[in-house]
Amino acid sequence: HNIDALRISRYPHINKLFLKLIYMAELFACRVSDFVTVVSGTDYIIAKKLLKPRRLDIIPNFVAYEIIERTLKKRSFRRRVWYEYVVYHGDFRYFPNREALLNMLKHIMPEIWKDYPNIKLVLIGPGIPRFEGIRIKSLGFLPQEELYAVISGAVCAIVPLLRGGGTRIKILEYMTCGVPVISTETGAEGLDVENFKHIILVRNVEEIPSVFKTLIGNTRLREELTRNAIALVRNKYDAQKVVAKLARICESLINQRRDPYG
């Protein structure tokens, strides 16, 4: 899912001994494994240099595109709302998501509300209580089908992550649901996305309000982003293709271990 030695090193005030133990555990695991997989080309380069596994390949994180598509077509899961909203979801017990939420509340949404005072912020995920204010609505944990219904109704998804590891499945879910995404470069790390083709990338959270204004004011851009994003998911991050690659790797390992006289 990610290289923990890298992910944990990005935390503020991390204990160096703890980080060393995590690195040694991952190094040992890679040395005794027949095969190691990582979720992105970025992690591939890091793993090859840092952990030196004997055999290594990329099995990207994925979404079940056809299942999500069928879910969104069900009438029972179409959510009708009377307001426009921005969405962000995740496990808010996880420090990077809490940090992202803090940046959303302190730096991003106040600037957006200056130009778009009627837009709401919708938050989804465990670790935050359910509540509804004038401009913010927290839904807590939602079943997957209901989650996709809420995501699909958003005008935009914002991912202001500053740290983490692996790749963010939430971005793949936003793209699959046909929602344009604004993300920090760290948030979209490891995903094969191009800026202003599949999503909009920013270097820091302070840039987000201005690019949000650009996105909302440009219907053609929103349509191009969602169309290209869905095509990318279907081509590279759809469950059927990813699992097929993993199956081929597993089959190869089984064949290598099979007794030639059995």
Tell me roughly what share of residues is in helical segments: 40-55%
Give the overall silhouette: globular
Strand arrangement across the biggest beta sheet: 5-6-4-3-7-8-9
Note the run of SSEs as H and E: HHEHEHEHEEEHEHEEHHH
Give the terminus-to-terminus CA distance.
Answer: 35 Å
Q: Give unreliable regions as ranges.
A: none
What number is the mean pLDDT? Answer: 93
Tell me about the largest β-sheet: 7 strands, mixed
Beta fraction: 5-15%
Counting DSSP H or I runs of 4 or more residues, the number of helices is 10
Radius of gyration: 20 Å
Structural class: alpha/beta
Q: What is the tally of beta strands?
A: 9
Features:
globular, two-stranded parallel ribbon, alpha/beta, 7-stranded mixed β-sheet, 10 helices, 262 residues
Structure description:
The protein is an alpha/beta fold and 262 residues long. The protein contains ten helices and nine strands. The protein has helices spanning 4-9, 16-32, 41-50, 65-73, 95-115, 144-152, 169-176, 208-216, 219-237, 239-257; strands at residues 36-38, 56-58, 85-89, 120-124, 131-132, 136-138, 156-159, 181-184, 200-202. A seven-stranded mixed sheet has the order 5-6-4-3-7-8-9, sandwiched between helices. Helix 5 crosses helix 8. The longest helix is centred in the middle third of the chain and has 21 residues, at 95-115. It is globular. It starts with a helix and ends in a 5-residue tail after the last helix.
